[in-house]
Amino acid sequence: MPSEGAIWVIAEQRGGKLQDVSLELISEGCRLADKLKVQLDAIIIGSNIKELAPPLVQRGADKVWLLDNPSLANYCPEFYTDALVELIKANQPSLVLFGHSSIGRDLAPRIAARQRTGLVTGCTSITVEKGGLVYSKPSYGEKASSNVICPKARPQVVTVKPGVLDIASPNPKRTAEIVQVTPQFSGEPKIKVVDFIKADPKTVSLTEAEVIIAGGGGVGGANNWHVIEELADALESSVAASRVAVDAGWVKSERQVGQTGKTVNPRLYVACGISGAIQHTMGMKDSKLIIAINKDHNAPIFKLADVKVIGDLLEIVPAITAKIREIRKSRELQRVG
Amino acid sequence: MKIFACIKQVIDTDGPLQIDRNTKSIDTRNVPWVVNPYDEIAVEEALQAKEACGKGQVTVVSLGDDSAEKGLRHCLAMGADRAILVCDTAFNGSDGYITGVILAKAISLNDYDLVLCGVRAVDTNAGQVGAVVATELGIPYVSSVAKIEVSLDGKAVRAYRRLERGDREVVEVELPALLAIELGHKPRYPSFPRRVSAQKASIERYGAAKLGLLPAEVGAAGAKTTITAVTPPKPKAGKLFAPPSNLSPAERMRLLMTGGIQEKKGDTLEGNPKDIAAKLVDFLKSQGFLPEEETKQ
User: Fold this and answer.
1) CATH class of the domain at A7-181
2) Substitution target from B94, B172, B258, B261 for chain A, most A beta carbons within 10 A
3) Whole domain around residue B192: which residue ranges?
């Protein structure tokens, strides 16, 4: 194989925080770069992003490019594209990896189109074979898996699904060259962002919900269901339920989590009066943080819980709701005063 | 307002899929073909945009062989005014990139204000064509659009973009522009008389010569990527749980039956509900689920 250009990982930052997918990408990039014997570069785009470099260096980046400009602080499709295309033109990487997030899904096709090169989106695995890299991705409504190659065009632009690849453990001793570039832009972007609408937790699909308050058989009846809804309301979160609660008619079936319901992955899942049968837990075990409230200290749900609360949810949940409301009220007063 | 909607005819992925394990490809015999669902929404949005403006023309354009006429006729039945089939044997083997180039050429032969397409096709799942068409036409590209509002003068459009976790970003862009549609209104179901008249409607045809494209730069020759194999999805590399061998058989059995969920070392809270609530709220605060104290701006 002729000597190839470097592998680039486009690290994603939001609000100055490095996203997990970037660490997955750099770990995968490191594996590929070792096999292909090429350099691995990480590119961070944003404003004041110097402190985001170490986690990438520790996981294998040989060089980190900082595209630093106040206009790049938040994702702006046109500026990001211009800055990246310029850097790609000057350095000729062989492969550019993006996360398949809302940013990567938007940015990668722009880069590939501008560079008139090949694009593979939503990859779940990359393998090194004789002819080059083979990308595997779900297709036909996830009913099939396609292998795609990009034989000649360079750079190959690829987006990788988040949460599929493993994050390598960091090596704090690694160092790398860090290059700061300040791209200049003339004029205003043609696409103007005028508003940002936060999803309403009451109507957002459970699969996209950020915080979920779920109730189960332990709630005890339709008359008590309001305690779940009130906590969800106070915490600005979505309501979910186990099958017991849905079958009893306390809540609509679209709110069911589990084998016959939805599979969710919120940042916080509060299971109230849910014993944790496997049919339920398989739908919520990937939640980042789980709080379980149950009377029975032997309930299987506690095995999953990061915080275990043993007690009567009908006493505890309203107490939490009251406490949160109190805090919110004092914040309001602070703001007014 | 002149609106273009790009459509692709795809296998109905809602139905069963036949994968030939020897040739590693999809068996396309005896399968229903439909307009890519995202593109169908784009056509619906195009029709609604035209209706909102009160005047205009909706043109559907598709790259494909003769069989793609069926999809175009479906869109005509929905209410599109004009259909163009971009069809040439030289285009065989096109990937997302070269498809975008060809469609852009076809659109550029006409006047256009707004170009719509689906955010991706459900067969290849790439989501590339929109960006290529927009780049080749030199117009702004807005992806993952969930809702469109055309300004009263028909010169600009406001688009609601779908982000993670149900959030929306609202952007404004002057026309001409290309919008890749992800969500929108339910595509209308064409009435029988409309279907009949769509069968009789004429479909314009553009070949490589009309577009000024050489056979050597389109089709498989111009493609940047190649699909080498389509296989049944690999079984998910689920982390197979093997209980530690030093446990008793009963314990191993129990672990296997619970799906190998290993106990997390979580804090346990017990006692007075008020105290528990206070501790939990502190915990939620520390994890950033509650607003922090007001900071000085």
Assistant:
1) alpha beta
2) B261
3) 2-222
